[in-house]
TrEMBL record:
One term under GO cellular component: plasma membrane
Localisation per UniProt entry: Cell membrane
Membrane disposition: Multi-pass membrane protein
Membrane among keywords: yes
Transmembrane helix as UniProt keyword: yes
Organism of origin: Haloarcula mannanilytica
GO molecular function: transmembrane transporter activity
InterPro entries in the cross-refs: ABC_transp_permease (IPR001851)
Cross-referenced Pfam families: BPD_transp_2
Major place of residence: membrane
Keywords: Cell membrane, Membrane, Transmembrane, Transmembrane helix
Transmembrane segments annotated in the record for this chain: 16-40, 114-135, 147-166, 192-214, 241-260, 296-313, 319-341
Source organism phylogeny: Archaea, Methanobacteriati, Methanobacteriota, Stenosarchaea group, Halobacteria
Protein name per Swiss-Prot or TrEMBL: ABC transporter permease
Length: 366
């Protein structure tokens, strides 16, 4: 018996596969992660009930989820927008830090009313994040330098600058902790609802702006066109240089606003390590929501649930905190797998070989 695997390119993607990929990806990641829970002698049903049900149906869990979602949504947009142009912004973490530093400096050094100071902190953060993201964008657009490497390396530069400033010029408070002074009331982002700061409104507004940009404007069409076929876009008179710079600079501004939202809204002061991998988590968020800015919003909320619910599960069952990172990695793995099956149809042919003819009955003499 011979078995042959046939891989053929799809002409059309089934609707159920196109729209079901994010759901299948998440379910597969949770199913595989359940194996790790079983190995740790933890009931997966009880653990996931703690992670999702208690997080979404208690006031504390819901408040924490919405607060965590703000930087995740904004950094997700920071990766999503360049992705639509065919670029990978791996440096959202560095852009988040650059924006948080710039916004913090404004908040600590200017004496203005809150209605003027908080918007100015956001503007300063967005400018710093845009400039930081503009460096790899310019290098890619001008000299075709790989933006994955440059944006990632600049993240480590931003983290080193953060370490220096919080142990030097910007250090405040008591002791030798790498942190700034506490923000004044005027420099603190006000609450939108009980326990949730107004940064959530900023994140939702940026989602709407991104959606309108990508679906209702000529610029959004150019971004998508350049991302799908940059050579054809060039022949059509579109500027790849301009598009590359734009998506990275705007993406960097989004990530930076996520940074200052977390610092001035949730933390109350700048602390080293305030960003538990938000910029890197933005990668699976953008991949999950790559078809729409509103899907980025939903993916950001999902990963916020993972962060908050993962902490609850760690306390309740004693599971390692790394389990959330395992789920994130599995989401990326299954997303890549799903993209393959969206592009190709896989079939199996089984050849059982020649079939022997049945033996003829022997006739006897009458």
């Amino acid at each position: 018996m011979n078995v042959a695997v046939n891989v053929d390119a799809r002409e059309d993607i089934p609707v159920w596969l196109a729209y079901g990929t994010p759901v299948f990806t998440v379910l597969a990641a949770l199913a595989v992660s359940a194996v790790a829970l079983v190995v740790l002698d933890v009931n997966p049903v009880a653990a996931y009930a703690t992670m999702f049900v208690e997080t979404l149906f208690t006031e504390f869990g819901l408040t924490e989820t919405l607060t965590k979602a703000v930087p995740l949504i904004l950094t997700g947009l920071a990766v999503y927008l360049p992705l639509k142009a065919g670029l990978f912004n791996i440096g959202a973490e560095g852009q988040l830090v650059a924006g948080a530093l710039a916004g913090t400096w404004i908040g600590l050094n200017l004496s203005l009313p809150g209605l003027a100071l908080v918007p100015l902190m956001f503007v300063a953060a967005a400018v710093a994040g845009g400039i930081w993201a503009g460096i790899p964008a310019y290098m890619r657009a001008k000299w075709d330098v790989n933006e994955i490497i440059t944006s990632l390396l600049l993240t480590f530069v931003a983290l080193e600058i953060q370490s220096y400033l919080l142990r030097g010029p910007m250090q405040g408070g008591t002791g030798n902790f790498p942190q700034s002074e506490r923000f004044s009331e005027a420099a603190t982002i006000p609450e939108l609802v009980s326990g949730v700061h107004a940064g959530l409104l900023v994140a939702v507004c940026m989602v709407v702006v991104t959606y309108v940009l990508m679906t209702r404007t000529r610029l959004g069409f150019e971004i998508t066109f350049v991302g799908s076929n940059d050579e054809a876009a060039r022949q059509a008179g579109m500027s790849k240089f301009y598009v590359y710079l734009l998506v990275f600079v705007v993406g960097g501004a989004f990530a930076a606003m996520g940074g200052i939202s977390e610092i001035a809204g949730a933390q109350g002061r700048y602390r080293a390590g305030f960003e538990p991998g938000y910029g890197f988590t933005a990668i699976p968020i953008a991949l999950l929501g790559r078809n729409s800015a509103f899907k980025v919003l939903l993916a950001g909320l999902f990963f916020a649930v993972l962060f908050v619910g993962g902490s609850s599960m760690e306390v309740a069952f004693g599971v390692p905190a790394a389990l959330v990172e395992i789920i994130q990695a599995l989401v990326i793995l299954f997303l890549i797998t799903a993209e393959f099956f969206k592009s190709y149809r896989v079939g199996i042919d089984i050849d059982r070989g020649p079939t022997e003819a049945p033996a003829q009955p022997q006739g006897g003499d009458d």
